[in-house]
Every structure is written in C-alpha cells, then in structure tokens.
C-alpha cells in the first residue's frame, strides 16, 4: 500500500505545475512602469519650479539672464525693506481672510436654507453653480461693467449717487472681494449642503420634539454635524483667495496706486515688467512662507473639528 508521501507526489504531477503567485516580480515591474509617468510629472512640474525659485531668490537674475551672480540674502533684505512689498503681504492676507470668512458664512446660510427648502430647490442649486463655472476673467469683466460709473448696473440702480468703487482707494479691494465672494461662495454651498444631506433626519426631529428650534437647533444639532466640513471649506476658500490674480488684473490692474495690489499681482509686475526675476523669486519665497503659516493655523482647527 502506497504511503502518504508517494500519493502526494502523484497528485502534484497529475495537477501540473503550481501557478505563480500574483504580485510577483513581473507585476511589481509593471506597477513601477505605470506609476513612473506620474512620478516624473510631479518631479518636473513641482520640484523644478521650486528649485528654480530658490536659486533665483539668492542670485542676481533677470528674465533673459538668470543666475548671473550669487548675492546671498540681498534680495530678501531688499524686499523686506520695501514698504510696498510688505504692504502687499498684509493686504493679501487680510483680503483672503475676510473674503474666506464672508464666503463661508454666506455659504453655510444658503446651504442650510436650501436643505430646509422644498424639493424645488434643485433649480436654485443649479443656478448657484453658474458663478462657479464662469472663468475668472469673465467674472472680472462682468463686475467691472457692474461698477462702471458711466452706465453700469450700480449707476443705473442708484442714479443720484456718484459711485466709482474701482477708482477709489478705499473701495477698490472690497469691490474685487465682492466679485470674488460671488464667484466662489457656491463652492461652499455645495460642500456644506452635501454634509447636511448626511445628517440623520430623525436626530433633528427628536431635537425639535424636545423644544430645540431656530438658532438652538442649528447650534446643538446641525453645527456639530457639519463643523468639520465647514472648517475644511474655509481652508480651501482661504487658499483660493490667497492666490487671487485674475480679478485684480482685469478689474483694477492693482490700482488706484497700490490700493489693490496683492502679492500675486506684484510678483507678476516685478518679474514680467521690471524683468527682475531674483526679486520676484524672493517675494514668492517669503509669500510661500506666509501662506504656509496662515494655512497651517486653519489646518489645525480643521483637524480638531474633524476629530471632535
């Protein structure tokens, strides 16, 4: 009688060769080949500009002749001593914070109203997407026409009042902010509305039966459910506002004077009009540090709200 080992050998021979396990060396090589273009794109599109900016910031560089001479921190010292550059940093951060907060507050209010409205709100949600899908250049042109004192919408609605906000030092940047809020608030509405749809209706009904209504219902029931999404939306909106350029370029060209010159517009002016790539790179480097600090603060609050 054949022993157990000989029986196993015969079964193995009859069943043929054992198939190779999936995920072997050949599959690993295929995975590397498929991911190589993505990694290469990230390196070329991300690392190269960063290295270029770092090198230009510490050298005497012009648009036609970059990296002429190593100057150390001279470019950084020059821009930090320039009152216009420092003012653009403060102006950009203040603009971004105000615009982001206003957009989030309006977005939350509109999203809550839509969620509690009738089913016919689908038409309203579709209309709200129109500003979001409109190119920034078109938005800037549209609002420039609205603020035009010679026959614009504002002048037509208020015929007896002489208003030219884009030509006024105090109102040029707020006017741009209004256009910015109009364009990007629908993004906040979409994000918050999606978060509201995930809330269990029975929880709200139970709270209503216990006497929670209006502001109390929102504070104790609705807000804890959407707080993480709202703060994440604030983070996204802040980043978008910090890099505003198109609206400034189309509506005011940084004027009047330096009243609406944000940092991104200043970088473009220094690099492409003054041809000083070294100074423009130094401004970009300092601005990147400022943006990192501002966004990290918001990111900390976003993480805390998400874990609460």
TrEMBL record:
**Record key words, sorted:** Cell membrane, Membrane, Sugar transport, Transmembrane, Transmembrane helix, Transport
Residues of the ABC transmembrane type-1 domain: 89-298
One Pfam family name is BPD_transp_1
Can you tell me where the transmembrane regions are? Answer: 33-58, 93-114, 126-146, 152-174, 181-197, 217-240, 247-268, 280-302
Q: Where in the cell is it found?
A: Cell membrane
What does the record say about its membrane topology?
Answer: Multi-pass membrane protein
What domain of life is recorded for the organism? Bacteria
Q: Does the keyword Cell membrane apply?
A: yes
Q: Which PROSITE patterns match?
A: ABC_TM1 (PS50928)
Q: Which InterPro entries match?
A: MetI-like, MetI-like_sf
Q: What protein family is recorded? A: Belongs to the binding-protein-dependent transport system permease family.
Q: What is this protein called?
A: Multiple sugar transport system permease protein
Origin species: Microbacterium foliorum
């Amino acid at each position: 009688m054949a022993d157990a080992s000989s029986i196993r050998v015969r079964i193995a021979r009859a069943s043929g060769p054992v198939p190779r396990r999936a995920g072997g060396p050949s599959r690993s090589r295929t995975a590397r080949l498929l991911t190589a273009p993505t990694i290469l794109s990230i390196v070329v599109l991300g690392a190269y500009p960063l290295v270029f900016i770092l090198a230009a910031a510490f050298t005497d560089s012009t648009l036609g002749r970059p990296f002429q001479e190593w100057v150390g921190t001279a470019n950084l010292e020059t821009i930090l001593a320039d009152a216009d550059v420092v003012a653009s940093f403060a102006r950009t951060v203040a603009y971004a914070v105000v615009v982001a907060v206003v957009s989030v507050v309006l977005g939350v209010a509109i999203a809550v109203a839509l969620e509690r409205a009738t089913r016919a709100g689908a038409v309203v949600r579709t209309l709200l997407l129109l500003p979001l899908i409109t190119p920034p250049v078109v938005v800037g042109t549209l609002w420039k026409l609205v603020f035009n004192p010679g026959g614009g919408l504002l002048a037509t609605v208020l015929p007896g009042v002489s208003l030219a906000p884009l030509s006024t030092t105090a109102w040029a940047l707020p006017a741009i902010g209004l256009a910015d809020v109009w364009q990007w608030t629908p993004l906040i509405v979409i994000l918050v509305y999606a978060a509201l749809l995930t809330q269990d209706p029975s929880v709200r009904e139970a709270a209503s039966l216990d006497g929670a209504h209006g502001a109390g219902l929102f504070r104790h029931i609705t807000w804890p459910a959407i707080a993480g999404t709202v703060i994440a939306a604030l983070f996204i909106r802040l980043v978008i506002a910090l890099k505003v350029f198109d609206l400034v370029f189309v509506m005011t060209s940084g004027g009047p004077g330096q009243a609406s010159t944000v940092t991104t517009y200043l970088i473009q002016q220094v690099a492409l009009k003054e041809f000083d790539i070294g100074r423009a790179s130094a401004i970009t480097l300092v601005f990147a540090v400022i943006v990192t600090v501002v966004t990290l603060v918001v990111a900390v609050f976003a993480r805390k709200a998400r874990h609460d």
